[in-house]
Amino acid sequence: MDNLRGIVLVILSMAAFTVEDMFIKKMSADISVGQILIFLGIGSASIFAVVSRLGGHRIFAKEAWRRPFLLRAGCEAGAALAFTTALSLVDISVVASVFQATPLFITMGAALFLGEDVGWRRWSAILIGFCGVLLIIRPGLAGFDPSALLVLVSVACVAARDLITRRIDVAVSSAVVSFQGFAAVVPAGILLILLGPQTLSPLTPQLWAMIGGGMVFGALGYYGIVAAMRMGDAAVVTPFRYTRLLFSLIVGVVVFAERPDSLTLLGATLIITTGLYTYLRERRVARCVRPA
C-alpha cells in the first residue's frame, strides 16, 4: 500500500508541476520572465520559510550557508531562469520532452565529476537519449528554434544542483535548502530586468491569481514528490516521474493548441526509454556492489 500511495503522490506531483508550468507560460504573454521569477521566488521562499520555522529549523544558521549550499542555490536560480525563459518562447510539449533528459545528465555528471563508475551500457543509453534530444531540437534543420537550447541549460543546472545535493550536509533541513533555492530565484529575476529589455508591468487580478496558482501548485508538487520518495520504494515510484511529459502534452494540445510532430514524439520516447533503462541499471549495479 505504501508503494501504491507513493505512485499516486508522484503522479499528482507531476500534474501539479505541469499546472505550474501552464500558469508560467500563460503569464509570460503579459509580463516579463524576470517579473514572474521575482514573484514566484518570493512566494515559494516564503512558504518554505514558514515550513522551516514551524519545524524549528534556523534559515540563517551558519552551517546552512557554506559554499556547497550557495553553489546549489546558484544552480537552482540558473535552472529557473533558463526553464522559465524557455517556457515563454517554446511549446510546452517541447520543453517537457527535452527536460526528461535530466536523469541522463545526472548520470553523466556523476561519472565525469564524482568519479562514479558508469559502464558501457549506461553510456550507450545516454548517447541514445541525446539522439532523442537532437530529434526534438533539430539543430541546423528547418524546424530548429534556438530558444529550445535554453531547456538544455536548465537541464544542466538541475543536474548540477542534484549532484551538489549529494554532497551537502544532511543535517541541514530540506526546507531550509528549498528556501535557499527559491530565494536565489529573486535576484536572478531582478538581474534579468536590470540587464535586459524586460520591464515591470502592472498586474491584473487574473495575473495575481495565476501567480498564486503557480506558487500553490509548485509547493504541492514539491511536497508530494518528497513525501512519495519517503513513503514508497524509489525503484517503484521514480519511473512515474515521466508522467509529467504526458500531462504536458495534454496541456499543450488542450490549452495552447500545440501539435507535437512525429519527430518530437519519437525523441521523447527515446529519452524516456533510455532514462528508465539508466535508472534501473543503476539500481541493479547498486544491489550487486552492496556489501553483505
From the structure above, extract its key features.
292 residues; 12 helices; mainly alpha; globular
In short:
Helix content is 75%, strand content 0%.
Please outline the major beta sheet.
none
String of helices and strands: HHHHHHHHHHHH
Q: Gap between N and C termini, in Å? A: 28 Å
> Could you say which structural class the secondary elements and strand pairing correspond to?
mainly alpha
Helix fraction, binned, reads over 70%
Overall 3D geometry? Answer: globular
Number of strands: 0
Mean pLDDT: 86
Can you give a write-up of this model?
With 292 residues, the chain is mainly alpha-helical. It is built from twelve helices and no strands. It is globular and about 50 Å long.
Question: What is the fold's blueprint, element by element?
Answer:
Layout: H1 2-27, H2 33-54, H3 67-89, H4 92-99, H5 102-113, H6 120-137, H7 149-165, H8 174-195, H9 205-231, H10 234-237, H11 243-254, H12 262-289
Helix pairs in contact: 1-3, 1-9, 1-11, 2-3, 2-8, 2-9, 3-7, 3-8, 4-11, 5-6, 5-7, 5-12, 6-12
